[in-house]
Amino acid sequence: xxxxxxxxxxxxxxxxxxxxxxxxxxxxxxxxxxxxxxxxxxxxxxxxxxxxxxxxxxxxxxxxxxxxxxxxxx
Length: 74
Hints:
With 74 residues, the chain is α+β, with helices and mostly antiparallel strands. 36% of the residues lie in helices and 12% in strands. It has one domain (13-68). It has a two-stranded antiparallel sheet with strand order 1-2.
C-alpha cells in the first residue's frame, strides 16, 4: 500500500469521525501520514481542495453556506 503524499499549503474538506478513531487509529498511525500531523479520523469530501493561499473569507463563507444545507451527522 502506497501512502499518499501531501505538501504544505494543500487543503481538504473533511468530516471528522471521532468515533472511528478507536477502530482505525492503529492503521492510520501506520499508513496515513496525515494522522502524524494531527488530522483526525475522517471522511474526505474533497482533496485536494484549494491552495491555502487561495482560501479567503469568501471561500469560507461559500463552503459554510453549502454545508449548512445538509443535516449534521449524529
